[in-house]
Amino acid sequence: MPRTIALIVAAGRGHRVGGALPKQYQSIGARSVLRCTLEQFSGHPAIEAVQVVIAASDRVLYDAQTAGLVLRPAAVGGPTRQRSVLNGLEALTDDPPAIVVIHDAVRPLVSPSIISRTVDAVACRLVDGAVACLPVTDTLKRIEGERIAGTVDRQGLWRAQTPQAFRFEPLLAAHRAAAGLGDSEDTALTDDVTVAERAGLEIAMVEGEERNFKITTADDLERARREAAPRPETRIGTGFDVHAFGPGDSVTLAGITIPHVRGLVGHSDADVALHALTDALLGAIAAGDIGLHFPPSDPQWRGVASERFLRHAVSLVAHEGGRIVNVDLTLICEQPRIGPYREQMRARIAGILGITPSRVGIKATTTEKLGFTGRSEGIAVQAVASVEMPVSRESS
Questions:
Q1: 346 touches 380 (CB < 8 A)
Q2: Domains identified in the chain and CATH numbers
Q3: Would you give the DSSP letter of residue 43?
Q4: Full-prediction pTM beyond 0.70?
């Protein structure tokens, strides 16, 4: 792969966004817009180094927002975007790359794949540059004054984005030539493809992405904040438990006392259903099993209601930022009959978990007289829990 450097243009002021800070220094989540952008490029395998162009007045802001990142010394921008890019290119002439990838700092949701596409297009094709584009899908109208003067044919029209990748030397020459036109001319050069076109360079198109939008207004900033928020993932946990019958005149299942000729044997109240469900929730957040949190060798848990175990698992899920989506239990036994108590069980579990009964499934089955449950020696329960968890950048 030819040596490639990213040039991030961050010298603009962005007055339409509002706020006390330039838009590239405003936050989206825990990071600034600029830092989000820089991390995408500095961590990309095709990018050897990152050069940033900033406004001279933003030096303190820039230093604070880029702490810990390995970047080339920032270049100072000019009065127009074209002059800022030229200043950035000139900063690379001491050790020029083969390819330069130019990107707006205020497109923080650029993906690794779109960076790769633009770099690969220049590295692997006989072209001078490549630009990410999206097709125009809306109907376009030409306006004169406040009236519609006609419809513009959108066939063949595309929206240009950044990144835009170029062979370094031809682009540097094109920018130097454009700068010679004077500020009245270079203000019209709104992107680097326009500069390259004026110089007769051949530019290819690669597929852009809707998510790679430019933050221009306050609404765009809010959209970026929504898009950058951690996306939840669904995790699944399973639990299985068995308790044998012993002396007693009732069993406790899913927090409901059911009259029976025998009881269940266990260190706590032997609620086999809640034990299995507790393990399912703990498993969904990789927090071990019920025995780790409530060792049967500890006398303080003797005879305790198993609801306490389940509430502890629920609190751990909440502490991790999780949300219980649904649970499903299968009770395996010949006796007692579960059907008459099913709705009570669903309501009881739903109350403990803080979800609606419609998210609690309870089924009962037998083993056709086979095995220990078939011989009415005990009850087994299988449980499944799904938990929606936020995905942090470190774990994704």
A1: no
A2: 4-228 (3.90.550.10), 232-390 (3.30.1330.50)
A3: T
A4: no
